[in-house]
Amino acid sequence: MISMPQITSHEFGQFQQFIFEAAGITLPDSKQALVSGRLIKRLDFYGLKSYGAYFKLLKGPSASAEIQIAVDLLTTNETYFFRESKHFDFLREQALGARSRNQVFRVWSAASSSGEEAYSIAMVLADCLDGYGNWEVVGSDISSRVLQGAKRAHYSMERARNIPYNYLQRFCLRGTEEYEGTILINRTLRSKVNFRQINLNAAFPELGLFDIVFLRNVMIYFSDETKRGVISRVISTIKPGGHFLIGHSENLNDLTRAVKHLAPSIYHKIL
Q1: 38 among known catalytic residues
Q2: Which of 48, 142, 16 is nearest to 56 (CA)?
């Protein structure tokens, strides 16, 4: 029986520093097993006998592609459709209120992972604004791997359990035969969602301004210093009077004065 390499505390510390420098993510010591489990296939791929050898490979002069793979593997991506339903109730209210305005209503899902959040947003906007005005959703993530899945828009029914029934009927195609137990977001809705790879811990590309930004359940992985930088950059993309939605376990206390607290995890950008 072939023994599997064990990650040492020193090696784990190297990867803690690696993902902090790459993405601003702070990995607690409790994630040592997660790191070793996610990277073991890369050791197998290269025939390496230690995590330290893999870390050394990442520091090589031609490692840019492998660095992206490592970032993809170490980025936590857990989401589902219509997570934290009160946020989507709030989104509906804002979208209905925008019907009379002759402007494109834009929403950014700033940590969209495999796309469930972005498509949930798109379903609400299509329901509220189709026939009344134009709208657009931007979905972004640091992981190129999960963005590829988001663009495919093909999900298990288990992931879709919180989609309202009428939305399932309108916006989703049910799989048959070998695709039984899955759904595909329909082409019309997919065309309204633009996915982009964006590192929240670096300067943003040109995105324009948004009416609402969702940045949920991400800042728990950031240090306070990293949070301040991310929050400042994100708020700069919100229209005056627009809204910023974060996870229910998160808050912006002492991190910014550019927004006003409206409700749990919902903030209003000060004019």
Answers
A1: yes
A2: 48
